[in-house]
Design brief:
Elements lengths: L3 E4 L4 E4 L9 E4 L4 E6 L4 E5 L6 E3 L14 E6 L2 E3 L12 E6 L3 E8 L2 E8 L6 E10 L5 E14 L1 H4 L3 H4 L5 E4 L2 E4 L9 E7 L5 E5 H5 L9 H5 L12 E11 L4 E12 L18 H8 L4 H19 L2 E4 L3 H21 L14 E2 H11 L4 H12 L11 E2 L17 H16 L8 E4 L2 E7 H14 L22 E2 L8 E2 L9 E2 H20 L3 H21 L9 E2 L5 E2 L9 E2 H9 L8 H12 L9 E2 L25 E2 L3 H10 L3 H11 L8 H4 L7 E4 L10 E4 L4 H13 L2 E4 L2 E4 L9 E8 L2 E8 L8 E6 L2 E2 L4 E3 L6 E8 L1
Parallel strand pairs: 38-42
Antiparallel strand pairs: 1-2, 2-9, 3-4, 4-5, 6-13, 7-8, 7-13, 9-10, 10-11, 11-12, 12-19, 13-18, 14-15, 15-16, 16-19, 17-18, 20-37, 21-22, 23-24, 25-26, 27-28, 28-29, 30-31, 32-33, 33-34, 35-36, 36-41, 37-38, 39-40, 39-42
Length: about 800
């Protein structure tokens, strides 16, 4: 069942019913100011950091759900409605939500009165623009009122929802004309404030939530809106809000547009105060400058046009054209758009991440970089340096950091032993894309301490050596607190029956080992060797090659279970992910990464592992993480078995590592199988089961309930997932096979046999490559010939030629 449709020409998903199975959201903003908006206008806004600089409130576990947002109430007579349906839930005569690339449009119609609300964050400004156009489609003059509404957060989102004894006494606002200023805590320690304004004279305002909603009132029927008149309340403590009243008269056929702006403003130290500082009167000059930029419909329209042009240019760096409409749609639009959102958000702020706890992840941000480095290489460069700055001197790293301060999160700490290798992966991806080795010379601190800075190359060396020097009884890498699977905690024990688990301290071991990290070490160790060679570090390159070869042998000796790769060994040297286990006999992660690393490729291990994945882990909705699920709690495994069977890490379909299997299938040359794995979780290919899947049909979710779960096929945790980067990487670099490398662009497709071929455009190091692939014999992999600008070449590496602005490549598969 569908709840909308794709409009590829407009790059939009059009939702035709407000009653989607879950809120379907969009992200607005691509620099410093961000807003999340659902298909019914729910959501929230923040500047840079969703925890520390939250502008508006959102209640995640509210009932009804998604019932706080950025709302416009329209009151005509006794009828009250919203363009996005919520929160009044008044039945509309028509409704559409258009989620576009960086903007959303809501179209509602009631009693021949139409509202069109365009919502976006402009390039270069710290604000959100809401352009509301009202049109009278009746044959009579219409009189109605518009009431805007936002609820301000008191900046620190965690403190805002916990420290009521203080916060109920600190709310402060000012009202100047049509502008409402939220200046809570300005007098104490902040040089910033929020402003909410409309470009028209207002009939009234409210800034007190109690006054606006009424005693025991709800936002579905605010007292002010029901009565039809604002109270001009000025909040003092309690809960500040922003609401404007506009009284409107429209002749038949007439339209009128209003531009509302919600902005974040900072006072510069050099600017003088207006009035006396002791009176708490804020300097409004920066706010007035901001509002002036968008105070007409024409200015707002130009800002939207500039935003669309920005995205059009950004998404043009890689495009594909084939007979597979859904593939083109995802690669050209939604895969890359989601990659950019994960660049901005990591895992910090979504409808499933509160923006309070996780911040930016070390591992997460490195993986996300794989999907956006071709779009914004300069910002990718800075992201790598930010990530490396949270590393410790021994090569380990903070697992997370705050986006505002860029400092490591000490509450979470370190000990996730896959983290260091992801820094090599991200840096290698950047160098392959740009050819910019100068990043390796950048002085980069440890733990953000500039006195301990080294060049980035030394950070990579310590990353590699951390894994090399932290190995367990089988000479496999130590897992630490966990590897990619944060819920697989194998250094755990319980001293007494029924006690909760504890972790081993440094003096007690720990000895648990990870075959997954071994696969990473081999795969990204090869990149480390190439980087060392380029730097003239021949001795280090030789040492690394020897360590990689030794690790490959170790995996085949101690990490192979006969038909698939083991997952790990726990502290007591028990196998995890083995046919010897009662539950959890086979895991997805090592099958993907060990095959991507080509461990045992010549010996046939890789093909066997892929066949085992298909035999034991495959389902119609994707590949589950493990089988069989854990049916009881295992203290020695940590959190993984705390989930019911079929959910999350306990045999859920983790979309993040399904692309690893698809990529691994291209390694063994099975294009049909790689395609099958790709399409089973790809949003455009499963749009028809939206009532089962429930989350947005245009972006990936983190997980889907597995075959052992009662709600098999139901997704959760949409948008912010490493799935975005990995699926784009899979589709563009391995299925389509257009892959940047150190010395040029590799073209090595591995496609389903039914495909005749495709054409693609790829911007790479200042040159645009026009690539035509033909598959006359309908093979899955293999190249018969390659021509570059009409000249045949050996191999499939297209060398970089900086003198050319355009290059034409033709590939004949066979």
């Amino acid at each position: 069942m569908k709840f909308g449709y794709f409009d590829d020409n407009a790059k939009e998903y059009v939702i035709t019913s407000p009653k989607t199975p879950l809120p379907w959201i969009n992200y607005l903003g691509c620099e410093d100011f961000f807003s999340l908006v659902s298909n019914t206008c729910g959501g929230y806004s923040f500047y840079k950091d969703a925890k520390l600089l939250r502008l508006t409130r959102y209640r995640y576990n509210n009932v009804p759900g998604d019932s706080n947002g950025h709302y416009y109430y329209i009151k005509e007579g006794n009828t009250i409605w919203n363009p996005g349906w919520m929160p009044t839930k008044t039945d509309l005569d028509s409704y559409e939500c258009h989620h576009g690339i960086g903007y959303s449009i809501f179209k509602g119609n009631k009693n021949d009165l139409a509202a069109e609300l365009t919502d976006f964050v402009p390039i270069g400004s710290t604000c959100e623009i809401n352009k509301l156009t009202m049109t009278n489609h009746s044959k009579e003059e219409k009189h109605f009122s518009i009431f805007s509404y936002v609820e301000f957060c008191l900046w620190n989102a965690m403190d805002d929802m916990t420290n009521f004894q203080r916060n109920y006494s600190i709310g402060e606002v000012e009202i100047h004309g049509s502008a409402i200023y939220h200046k809570t805590e300005y007098r104490e320690r902040r040089n910033h404030y929020a402003v909410y304004s409309v470009n028209a004279p207002i009939a009234g305002f409210d800034t007190s939530r109690d006054a606006f909603l009424g005693a025991y009132g709800e936002n579905s029927a605010p007292d002010v809106v029901v009565s039809g008149s604002c109270k001009n309340s000025v909040a003092s403590g309690w809960a500040p809000v922003g609401s404007h009243q506009l009284d409107v008269t429209l002749a038949p056929g007439e339209s009128r547009t209003y531009v509302f702006v919600l902005g974040y403003v900072e006072n510069l130290a050099a600017e003088k105060w207006v009035g006396r500082p002791e009176d708490g009167i804020i300097n409004r000059t920066p706010a007035e400058k901001l509002l002036e930029k968008f105070n007409t419909t024409e200015k707002a329209d130009q800002a939207l046009a500039d935003l669309k042009a920005y995205w059009e240019k950004l998404l043009s760096h890689f495009t594909v054209s084939s007979k597979e409409e859904k593939l083109d749609r995802m690669v050209n639009i939604w895969h890359q758009y989601q990659c950019m959102v994960t660049f901005n958000m990591s895992r910090s702020a979504s409808y499933y991440e509160s923006g309070i706890g996780r911040g930016m992840g070390f591992r997460d941000s490195c993986q996300d970089l794989l999907g956006f480095v071709h779009l914004i290489p300069d910002r990718a460069r800075q992201r790598i340096l930010d990530i490396a700055s949270t590393q410790f001197e021994d090569g380990s790293a903070y697992h997370q950091y705050q986006p505002l301060t860029k400092k490591g999160n000490s509450d979470i700490g370190s000990g996730f032993n896959d983290d260091p290798l992801w820094l090599i992966a991200g840096t290698a991806a950047y160098i392959k894309e740009t050819g910019d080795y100068s990043i390796l010379d950048e002085r980069t601190p440890y733990d953000n301490d500039d006195s301990k800075a080294t060049d980035l190359m030394e950070h990579l060396r310590r990353s590699f050596h951390y894994t090399m020097e932290h190995r367990g009884p089988h000479k496999l890498p130590l897992i630490g607190r966990a590897d990619w699977n944060d819920c697989l905690n194998l250094n755990c024990f319980s001293t007494e029956p029924g006690e909760s688990f504890q972790t081993f301290g440094p003096s007690e071991g720990p000895n648990a080992e990870s075959v997954f990290i071994a696969g990473m070490f081999v795969r990204y160790g090869k990149d480390y060797v190439e980087i060392c060679r380029h730097r003239g570090m021949a001795e280090e390159a030789a040492l690394a090659e020897e360590a990689i070869a030794d690790m490959e042998k170790t995996v085949l000796d101690a990490g192979w279970d006969g038909e698939w790769f083991l997952r790990a060994y726990d502290h007591y040297k028990n196998k995890i992910g083995s046919k010897e286990c009662e539950d959890g006999k086979i895991y997805i992660e090592p099958q993907g990464f060990c095959v991507m690393a080509e461990i045992g490729l010549k010996e046939g291990n890789c093909l066997k592992a892929m066949e085992s994945v298909e035999k034991y882990l495959d389902t119609k909705y994707g590949i589950v993480l493990l089988q069989p699920p854990y049916h009881r709690y295992h203290v020695e495994l940590g959190e993984i078995s705390s989930y019911p069977p079929g959910y999350k890490e306990n045999a859920g379909i983790f979309c993040h590592n399904n692309p690893w299997i698809s990529i691994a299938e291209t390694v063994v040359g099975r294009g049909n199988r790689a395609w099958q794995v790709y399409t089973r979780t790809c949003p455009a290919y499963i749009e028809d089961i939206s009532e089962i899947h429930r989350t947005e049909p245009y972006v990936y979710s983190q997980m889907i309930a597995g075959k052992d779960a009662p709600n098999f096929g139901e997704a959760k945790n949409s948008w912010l997932t490493g799935t975005a980067a990995w699926t784009f990487l899979n589709a563009s670099q391995y299925i389509l096979g257009i892959r940047p490398d150190y010395d040029g662009l590799i073209v090595d497709p591995c496609i389903p046999s039914f495909m005749d071929g495709f054409t693609a455009k790829r911007d790479f190091r200042g040159t645009t490559y026009h690539i035509e692939v033909e598959n006359p014999n309908h093979v899955e992999k293999g190249i018969a010939s390659v021509t570059v600008d009409g000249n045949a070449i050996e191999g499939n590496l297209i060398p970089v030629d900086a003198s050319k602005k355009e290059v034409h490549v033709k590939i004949i598969m066979g």
